[in-house]
Fold each of these.
Amino acid sequence: MTSPLVHKQVTVRCSREHAFRTWIEQINLWWPTGHRKHPGSTMVLEGQPGGRLVERGPGGAEFDFGLIRDWEPPARMVLAWFPGTGPSRPTEVEITFVSLSDGAWTRIDVVHRQGAPLEEGEWPIKAALYARSWTHVLEALREAIAEA
């Protein structure tokens, strides 16, 4: 039996294009430091099909968070997501950017799915952790856009 997916969303006061660019081009500025592996690291999202979401540590070590599977700027991207599972058993994260109020506002939806088969009972535990994490990540993005 497949467990429910994780769905989080945030509404920001900017165009869909601006929200999408902020997610991609400024991810290092807004991605919470508490959601990184190493203090002082840099987050980079290679905005293209097959691009990586990677954390680069101060010493140059890299930790891949995921790979872009689908790329539809500025509306949507889907990533194979590795944190907590490893690249051989990725989960799936779909991020959509929906224009609201004649483009003055944008709703950003994050849907996190199980993806690859996991150990029995593993997804519900991970889903609870992902739900809390996405709440923090989206709040950080909302604050960064509001301050810009």
Amino acid sequence: MREQAEPPSDKSPSSQLFLIGRNSRGNWVVQDQSGRRGGLFIDRTEALRFALFENGHRPQAVVMVPGILELDLELRTADCAPARADVNAGIVRKAA
């Protein structure tokens, strides 16, 4: 008997787009556009499987990121920009 999988955690249209890429350490990263769901995966196949499951099996809503994609699961409001694909985008430096 097969165990039933959990349903997607959020069905809102604003978070249906998923980004897949590699982080600076070479791990596979998946993150939804709103930054609410995602994870690190051992290979591309598992990353893609997660993204498709979470978005209702819509391959057109999965984007492969050619550069570095760092996992950032901070909660974002609906009108915020999509997750950053730049590893240094969140670094703020202050003069001493």
